[in-house]
Write a structure and sequence with these properties.
Blueprint (H helix, E strand, L loop, with lengths): L1 E4 L6 H10 L1 H5 L1 H11 L2 E4 L2 E4 L2 H8 L8 E2 L2 E2 L24 H13 L3 H6 L1 H16 L7 H4 L4 H15 L6 H11 L3 H7 L10 H12 L19 H27 L16 H6 L6 H14 L6 E4 L4 E5 L2 E5 L4 E4 L1 H4 L3 H4 L13 H4 L17 H20 L3
Parallel strand pairs: 1-7, 3-9
Antiparallel strand pairs: 2-3, 4-5, 6-9, 7-8
The protein binds protoporphyrin IX containing FE.
Length: 408
């Protein structure tokens, strides 16, 4: 395999340290866009070879992959475990006998099958939506204002109450249960202290994680758990519990909350090519709230320019050569390869010269987007929460859009 790679001038441990300290900044869309503008489509970041050409990223997302304990460019630690590896994002899906696909099937079965549709339509779910609308009316909701910063109320409070209820049947009306969930799902610090390397190494949040494990283990979705099912690689109730606790914090609530903030104007787009000047809230106010397709495209276009998960990774299974600033360099098997979906989703060769313009009506948005590690409808390890995430953000646009049009 040969690829063209431009190397960032800073090197070795200094680069690593700098990338770690500035991780959030470095992996955010604005700075990676700037990196590509100065270094070209391919580059080296934090010890990973990054390849951002749309077709190469699409090929990777449609291929099986070897993995390690990374979320995009972010090293993870303290990941859930029982006696064997269970953290989906770290697991290879390169052969049928591997557990990855069966564990995903188990997760999907218990979260999104029995009782899920009923819970979505239930009185409890309606109360979550009513509370969200009420909070929007009563709390200041500009960027960085109360609606977006509270933990147990406002937008985050809604996601904690609603997702734990619809996926797991957890009684989030019980204040004691909410207290345990909020302690782990609140703000931005716990995600680092729970799972991001090096902050999570001492496991200072261990008892907080354990409390959420207990709430999930005792949830109604897992009450009928059947042990020893071969189709789920004999995944145990404890394994699914620990995996789910981590997924709720790392992916489900964090990812969807970011998208919901962005589509409602609570988070400015990255400062690149005037994307940050897009007035998302003003665009939202022009939408036909009865047009499901338009609402979906609105969410996808926001996520294309500002994706909650900006990259995935994989590990090279064989040695390969790469052309770096005109020189061919050999990389060994085991090299970490960064797959920056954010850059692929703004590759002008695929999206055209208006790639950085906010245009929810752009052609083939649904077919070409990679927001959920998909390529349209294809992909080998597509996010199992994509429909819940999208449906929830679309409904947020509808419910809060109505409040805005009533002049609140
Ligand atoms: C807007 C919100 C979300 C976005 C943008 C998103 C995006 C992604 C992406 C890009 C991946 C692939 C990561 C990788 O391979 O390294 C992923 C994986 C995953 N996501 Fe989501 N996600 C979102 C919400 C959710 C929700 C609500 C759930 C809850 C069920 C969820 C559960 C998962 C799981 C379990 C995986 C691992 C899948 C696997 O390894 O096969 N995500 N997500």
């Amino acid at each position: 395999m040969t690829m063209v790679v431009n190397v960032c001038k800073r090197s070795g441990s200094l680069l690593w340290l700098s990338c770690l300290i500035h991780l959030k900044r470095c992996s955010g869309s604005g700075s990676t866009e700037k990196g590509r503008a100065s270094m070209g489509k391919n580059y080296v970041l934090a010890g990973m070879v990054g390849v951002s050409d749309y077709e190469t990223v699409a090929f990777t997302l449609k291929s099986a992959q070897h993995r390690t304990d990374y979320l995009g460019a972010q090293p993870l630690t303290n990941l859930p475990k029982v006696d064997r590896e269970i953290f989906l994002l770290s697991m290879a899906n390169t052969a049928k006998e591997l557990n990855h696909d069966k564990f995903v099937a188990c997760f999907y079965h218990y979260m999104f099958r029995e009782g899920f549709e009923e819970r979505l339509k239930s009185e409890k779910a309606k109360k979550c939506w009513a509370q969200l609308a009420e909070d929007y009316k009563t709390m200041p909701h500009g960027e960085g204002e109360q609606f977006y910063t509270e933990d147990a109320t406002g937008l985050r409070g809604f996601f904690i109450r609603y997702f734990f209820y619809v996926m797991l049947g957890t009684d989030t009306e019980d204040p004691e249960i909410m207290k345990d969930l909020v302690a782990m799902m609140r703000g931005d610090t716990p995600i680092a202290m729970c799972y991001l390397w090096p902050f999570a190494v001492p496991n200072l949040m261990g008892s907080t994680i354990k409390k959420v494990d207990d709430r999930i283990f005792n949830s109604s979705s897992l009450a009928k758990f059947v042990e020893g099912e071969e189709k789920f690689a004999n995944m145990t109730k404890l394994e699914l519990t620990r995996l789910t606790t981590c997924i709720m914090r790392l992916a489900a609530i964090t990812g969807t909350l970011q998208l919901a903030k962005s589509v409602t104007g609570g988070l400015t787009m990255p400062p690149f090519e005037d994307m940050d000047k897009t007035n998302v809230a003003a665009e939202w106010d022009k939408l036909d709230l009865a047009d499901e397709q338009a609402l979906q495209n609105f969410c996808l276009e926001v996520a294309r320019l500002h994706p909650p998960v900006s990259s995935v990774h994989h590990i090279a299974t064989e040695a390969f050569s790469a052309t770096i600033q005109g020189r061919v360099v050999d990389f060994p098997a085991g090299t970490k390869i960064l797959v920056p979906t954010n850059l692929a989703m703004t590759d002008v060769d695929t999206w055209g010269v208006d790639a950085f313009k906010f245009n929810p009506s752009r052609p083939a948005l649904q077919e070409k987007n990679m927001v959920f590690a998909n390529v349209g409808k294809q992909g080998t390890r597509v996010c199992p929460g994509q429909y819940l995430a999208m449906d929830t953000c679309v409904e947020i646009l509808r419910v809060l859009g109505k409040v805005r049009r009533e002049g609140k």
